[in-house]
Design goal:
This protein is 12% helix and 34% strand. By secondary structure, the protein is mostly beta strands. β8 and β9 form a beta hairpin. The longest helix is centred in the first third of the chain and has 14 residues.
Length: 156
């Protein structure tokens, strides 16, 4: 049974509206640790570079076997405010799955402009952003605290 509020709405309707708002969110968030729907979850550590073992008879395939292959792996290291490889442009095709891995010698935050994606960069620990390059254009990839431009991502 519902209870009527002075405004004439039922408690159930109000609860449903609040739930919908929580699920939808309130728009863009400047916090780079919040992924957008076009992005895979970010992680503080990169995936293992080793290949998965071959399944034995009767074994079920691992979850890694169903993970889509990354089309473009971009790896950047920051040491003493120097970016390696040096800042430049990196071109990827629209629709490619891109993985950016950054290791910094100081704690910082990675941010991919235009996609509003990012990852925390604990000192000495790789940060990872993985996403589908579904927007064309030129997008700056930078660190927030040290304000270093790592590279410009061109999506065509």
């Amino acid at each position: 049974m519902s209870v009527r509020t002075p405004a004439g709405r039922t408690t159930a309707a109000l609860a449903a509206a609040l739930t919908a708002l929580l699920l939808v969110g309130c728009g863009q968030d400047d916090d780079p640790s919040v992924a957008t729907p076009s992005a895979a979850p970010t992680s503080a550590a990169p995936p293992s570079a080793t290949t998965a073992p071959t399944p034995t008879a009767g074994a079920t395939p691992s979850a890694a076997a169903s993970t889509p292959a990354v089309d473009r792996q971009i790896t950047v290291t920051i040491a003493k405010r120097r970016v390696d490889p040096p800042t430049g442009r990196i071109t990827v095709g629209k629709g490619e799955l891109v993985r950016i891995t950054v290791t910094s010698d100081v704690s910082d935050e990675l941010h991919v402009h235009g996609y509003d994606l990012g990852a925390r960069l604990p000192a000495g620990t790789p940060g990872l952003v993985e996403f589908r390059a579904d927007k064309t254009g030129l997008f700056e990839v930078e660190t927030h605290e040290t304000e270093l431009v790592l590279f410009q991502l061109v999506v065509r």
